[in-house]
Amino acid sequence: MAQEHTEIRSAAFVRGVIGTTPILYDGVPQVAFVGRSNVGKSSVINMLTGRKNLVKVGKTPGKTTELNFFSINDGACYFVDLPGYGYARVDPKRKEKIKKMILWYLLYAEVTPRLVALIVDAKAGVTAFDTEMLRVLREQGHPHLVVANKIDKLNQKERAAALKAIRAAAGESPVVPCSATSGEGRAALLAAIAV
């Protein structure tokens, strides 16, 4: 996406994908969003696009079981919303299916996303699932960053401690403090997406 496209003018749902399909390989750059259930992944995408209900925010975590493709700026790129992983109350078979789908997209689908945004809950920090995801992203050489969402829920002291811990866990990976509620981090994320 050229630099002038750092603002999102249009966003539309295209389709949900559960396996190999032409949309994966149509040459349109893909920006993937991945994270545990309940970290506010859908809310972050809605905040970035300026659309409250583009991505339905599930009342039941672990509900999304497809890769959802959204066309941004009339086909300039896709936002790919990956299913949330690691929700404790999801049936183990379904949990395994979700994990396999995420790993298939990142490892075996032969897709090279322009960027993968790993969304974590700033208060909860980087979990074992997130650490595994970072390892996969590094091994595959996927450009990525860590989005510390829900930062607005922390006071100044908590925020400083949380970001220090997240940055330590993220290592070389860039960390962007973010709030889907207040819009903090939006400009930084849009700038990163528009490389």
Q: What would the keywords be for this entry?
A:
single chain, 195 residues, alpha/beta, seven-stranded mixed beta sheet
How would you sum up this structure, described in words?
38% of the residues are buried. It contains 5 helices and 7 strands; from the N terminus they run ββαββαβαβαβα. The N and C termini lie close together (6 Å). Residues 1-5 have low confidence and may be disordered. It has a 7-stranded mixed sheet with strand order 1-3-4-2-5-6-7, sandwiched between helices. The chain has 195 residues and is α/β, with parallel strands linked by helices. The chain has a single domain (3-193), classed as 3-Layer(aba) Sandwich (Rossmann fold).
Which helices and strands occur, and which strands form pairs?
Layout (H helix, E strand, L loop, with lengths): L10 E7 L12 E6 L5 H9 L17 E6 L4 E5 L10 H17 L6 E7 L6 H13 L3 E6 L6 H15 L4 E3 L8 H8 L2
Parallel strand pairs: 2-4, 2-5, 5-6, 6-7
Antiparallel strand pairs: 1-3, 3-4
